């Protein structure tokens, strides 16, 4: 957002006549540097958020631990796939599957949690992928009169949500297998 703000200021300066020379405008645009967050810190913060989401839903410390572990893997897979240039929806699907399957395995194999507690661990892990901002901005755009942009953002958020749901369906399928009942 800071980059967009700086670019908006440059546009306002051009329209006000403060910047007229194309070279000056070009140098002003080139001087805009996007700010990036520390990716490792983001992974840890979002994994802790998964544990806290579980806590807010009445989880035990074991469920919170499963959620944190699942959230760590989910975010590592998501950032790794995005860095390698995969589509965002594919990254959401794979990260939802990997994070929730790790939460499932740790809940079943390490702690032998009940089905309700296991579901809570999986749910709180996968909540990291809810695209809240595209949904919210899409509806705000529609209410402001930018219908095309709003519909586009809502469809994008729906595709991301559907991709995460496909990853979770894989985990639910594996959870339904009888392999866990024999252990």
Automatic annotation (TrEMBL):
PANTHER family named in the record: SUCCINATE TRANSPORTER SUBUNIT YJJP-RELATED, UPF0442 PROTEIN YJJB-RELATED
Family in the record: Belongs to the ThrE exporter (TC 2.A.79) family.
Q: Can you give the residue ranges of the Threonine/serine exporter-like N-terminal domain?
A: 1-171
Localization, per the record, is: Cell membrane
Superkingdom of origin organism? Bacteria
Q: Which Pfam families match?
A: ThrE
What is the protein name for this chain?
Answer: Threonine/serine exporter-like N-terminal domain-containing protein
Transmembrane intervals = 41-56, 62-81, 90-111, 117-136, 157-180
Molecular function per GO: transmembrane transporter activity
Protein species of origin: Succinatimonas hippei (strain DSM 22608 / JCM 16073 / KCTC 15190 / YIT 12066)
Classify the protein's membrane topology as the record does: Multi-pass membrane protein
**UniProt keyword list:** Cell membrane, Membrane, Transmembrane, Transmembrane helix
GO BP terms: namely: succinate transport
- Gene Ontology terms: cellular component: plasma membrane
Which spans of this chain does the record mark as coiled coil?
Answer: none
InterPro entries tied to this protein: ThrE-like_N, ThrE_Dicarb/AminoAcid_Exp
């Amino acid at each position: 957002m800071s980059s967009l703000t700086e670019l908006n200021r440059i546009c306002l300066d051009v329209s006000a006549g403060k910047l007229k020379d194309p070279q000056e405008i070009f140098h002003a645009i080139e001087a805009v540097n996007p700010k990036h967050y520390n990716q490792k810190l983001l992974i840890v913060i979002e994994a802790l958020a998964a544990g806290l989401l579980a806590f807010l839903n009445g989880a035990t410390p074991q469920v919170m631990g499963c959620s944190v572990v699942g959230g760590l893997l989910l975010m590592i897979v998501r950032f790794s796939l995005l860095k390698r240039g995969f589509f965002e929806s594919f990254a959401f699907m794979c990260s939802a599957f990997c994070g929730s399957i790790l939460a499932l395995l740790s809940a079943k194999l390490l702690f032998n949690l009940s089905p309700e507690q296991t579901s809570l661990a999986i749910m709180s892990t996968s909540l990291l992928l809810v695209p809240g901002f595209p949904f919210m901005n899409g509806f705000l755009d529609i209410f402001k009169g930018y219908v095309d942009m709003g519909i586009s953002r809502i469809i994008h958020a729906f595709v991301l949500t559907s991709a995460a749901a496909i990853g979770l369906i894989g985990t639910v399928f594996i959870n339904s297998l009888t392999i866990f009942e024999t252990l």
